[in-house]
Give the backbone structure.
Amino acid sequence: MDKIIVTTNAKINLSLDVVNKREDGYHNLKMIMQSVDLSDTITIEKSANNDIEIKTNLYYLPVNETNIAYKSAQLFFEESGVEVCGLKIDILKKIPVAAGLAGGSSNGAGVLKGLNQMFGEPLSRERLMEISVKIGADVPYCLMGGTALAEGIGEKLTQLKPMPKCKILLVKPPFGISTPRIFSRLKVERINYRPHTKGIIDAIERGDVLGIARRMYNVLENITGKDQLEIRKIKNRLIDNGALGSVMSGSGPTVFGIFDDEQLAKKAYAHFKEKYRDVFLCNPV
Ligand code: C5P
């Protein structure tokens, strides 16, 4: 196979809890992850010259060895023993960048999966998941997708029952947030309210959309500093527009609301689209 096209989904966090800080600087987390049908498309093609050439539709993304797709391709060759060859990787981005939606991590996962398929599956699914954490803490989850509990730094995964049918409206404020910056501001001992993770898992098991939406909580929301005002405003507006619950995803700044009524969700989409550029009406996948 000389060419493969993969689509890579965005994720949201139905909940995000920080358990403690580790010696290596990372944090142990407890998060419920859900993939949504907002995706980037990656075309990978073998090429005659021996470079990894990256192209994207976003001019401000790096196309050198710091791009997550480049790192993933390098890691694939290192780990699989497949003889290094030239590649052209074209990334069509729709998932906003630095948004808390794991756009970069999902691209990394897509390149690993795509190359593994392209070269006849030299790495098992388990091995792929194992090595993928070297690219980023959310990459193992992105390989798995669906509804999952993520623990450790994000790499210890438990698949959950699929999220019940609902509409998920994503609204990204007009700025990005750097994940390392958010984590560096966090004082774990100061966290005084945490999500009831088990309660959300039980609600997922029951297929109870309202039960999930009401319990959604993200401990990182309170440390977004000056951005917090805008994030709060969007959260409140989502509720005013009929969302059953709303919360920030990951390290932000994207906020999402859960709807059980499609018409209301569409009306809310139109409302937010007048004020914000990055607004997406999604389904859980
Ligand atoms: O692994 P990834 O590159 O996605 O993580 C970005 C940054 O987020 C890390 O450098 C670290 O500062 C922070 N982080 C953390 N604990 C995690 C995941 C990420 O402190 N579990």
Remarks:
- The mean pLDDT is 97.
